[in-house]
Amino acid sequence: MLMKFLMLLLVQAIAVFIYCCGFFPQKNVLRGDAHFLLEPVLQNQSEPVFDKLVLVIIDALRSDFLFDQSMSNFTFVHSLLNSGEAWGYTAFSNPPTVTLPRLKGITTGSTPNFLDAILNVAEDDSSSNLKDQDSWLKQFAIHGKKMRFFGDDTWLKLFPLEFFQEFEGTNSFFVSDFEQVDWNVTRHLPDQLTTQRDWDVLILHYLGLDHIGHKGGARSIFMPAKQTEMDSIVKRLYENVDQNTLICIMGDHGMNDAGNHGGSSPGETSAGLVMMSKKLAQFPAPKAQRNISLPLTLPLQNDEVSYDYLTKVQQVDFVPTLASLFNVPIPKNNVGIIIRDFLPLLNTEVASIKVKENYHQMASLLGQNADINVEQMDQLFMLMKNLQNVLTKSATNYKYPILALGFGILVIATAVSLCFATTTMRLSPPFFLTLLMSLLLGLSTFGSSFVEEEHQIWWWVVTGVLLLSQFYLRTSFRTHFICLACVRLIRAWNNSGQKNTYNNTVFDILKANPQLQWYLNVLTIFVVGMRGTLGDTLSFIISFSLSGLCVSYKVSWAVVNHENVPGWLKELAFKNCLFFTSSDTNVFGEALVPMAQFFFQCVVVSIITKIVALRMGLTRSNIHNCISLFLMFQSPSPNIPLFLIFEVLQSALTQILIDHYSSNDYFISLTSLILQYFTFFQFGGTNSIASVDLSNAYNGVPENYNIYFVGFMMFVSNFAPTIYWSLYKSQFPDMNNHKWRSFAQRKITLLVYHCVVGCFLLAACYVFRSHLFIWSVFSPKLCYFAAWNIFMNLIVECGLESIIVATNNL
Length: 810
Known about the structure:
InterPro entries: Alkaline_phosphatase_core_sf (IPR017850), Phosphodiest/P_Trfase (IPR002591), PIG-G_N (IPR037674), PIGG/GPI7 (IPR039527), PIGG/GPI7_C (IPR045687). The chain is α/β, with parallel strands linked by helices.
């Protein structure tokens, strides 16, 4: 039975992987370099509007950070906007709103490929290199422009190093740092400003503001100071260049209020864009910028915050605009439209040619012949807008044979799994409940709103199952009531889903009441970490030490991030930090990395020690305590008390399952599966890339970034409650009699659910492959499903749990 299950689970994972290979292929692009198509002699002889370009990308610079009265601290930029020396825009950045695909859009003018969102975190990946693809950087290099780059090293992965006469990259994923990462860019400014004759293009990509968002959200207490720092850098640049230099300030994408990005919410897709030069004051400012004073205050639209400040453009429109101003050919794969406000900077004849050139270039992408008789500007811009709408919807070429192969394998695996389940579960109530739940969740994948609000379905599933159990048993009312109270409290803890947010969640209340939060945190860590260790000296010492380390680290992390911590707790943590650093000025900050590394080492050693002790009969305690402490260590501080509720819920459920369901393997596995998904969403997770929490992915990570370690820690921090409930099955004592048989039986429910839902999801992704929400809703859901199959089903459910079962000597 065990081998059958493992083979089916492996086949299922392979099927999903094959389907993803066909669904997320590399996009086909036109190779080669663009040349002037219309009046090439005249265009080559024309003088560019500007001689030099300074491009300052401030990662995750949302539009309101530049333009809003309550959110912006760019006072110098405001003064230039008001004087007409700067023109401002809200630039729509197509999802997925992560750096790699957005940099491709900013430089090539092309639409994003969702695969780039996945490759965005692959530090050593080179498959997204743009060396063979046309871009304005390549055109600048062909035309002899000397370029220098400092900042996010994603640029150095995208473009050949020979493009840059001087460069230095900074790591874009070490989000714990938002000071040094920017100073490493700024420190180059004195030399660059004194040697302006030696370069034509200076590119600076600052990461600190994005890192602050990931750590503390869009309204972090560090945000105003960071904006002021960026504003002073812009001022320094502007005051040291002449009127023939164009300075562009822009965000590659925005962020949501939680500080994350990757999805398609208005905050994530609304990036700020400002073009500034002393020369711009000689021309009429954009209409939306006239007769107003920056910063602005936008009214609510349909009770929602708007991020549409000044004129709204597509972010890819930056590419043909830049190419026209510097008189280089528009890149071949561009889908952007010249920003019309800049045409007066060109003479009338050249401006007309540039617009027609833009139209011909876009038409060629669709294999169409441009209408050469169109002369009216308004008609040209209307035609280009229509072309842009078509081109942005045809971003991917699916590999249909691979899709069919992956889907076919999964259908076969599903049929075999259902046959396997019917022979082992024998059409029992758990089988019908599992099948009904699988069909319900599977059908829901055909609705974009159901995918976005999947947490609602799991809320009704968990409450429905508990009420059905109470109705069936008609006893144990108190225990069932405790379970219902726990799940209601869990539901109230965080904002889940993507459509609606609620005020006064428990998370928000704890953030506003740090004294209460930290008393609960300390209580939870020690109660959960030391559960079942009384009377067992070895386990007591190990658990107490790990609990103390966990509390000390969490307090230190909070202090470094300027959060309020009770004085007595801060003092205790300070004493512990002295063991990890010799610093006299920044004790908490300097101790963070070594303390986290020491904690991880202790967890590994403790697990090994407990396994050996269990086998030798020297201890009764298993390794769940160590794993639970590790999960709490990787969780946001306001979420830690949830584990105390988990313990209460687990105790009540165990009593019900033992007393009334005879520890039935299938009921146990069904309970575990439901709570895995329910708590994942109520912990703050969604089916959007934007909700991926990176704040704890770098615990213990020094400056030498390791993609594999960070990737693992990212999965743990985002799946912490899921891991907790997946291991719940292994704690039932009846596994001692036939533990490997029980281990396999408790996986059948998991297998059936993921096979059935997987078939529906893969079918939905195919049916809606041309849907408006394919990249913002269905593709992220497919990515989460694939990650769940690999990380949870294979690594945790099979790997980690099998270790626990093998060492179980109860």
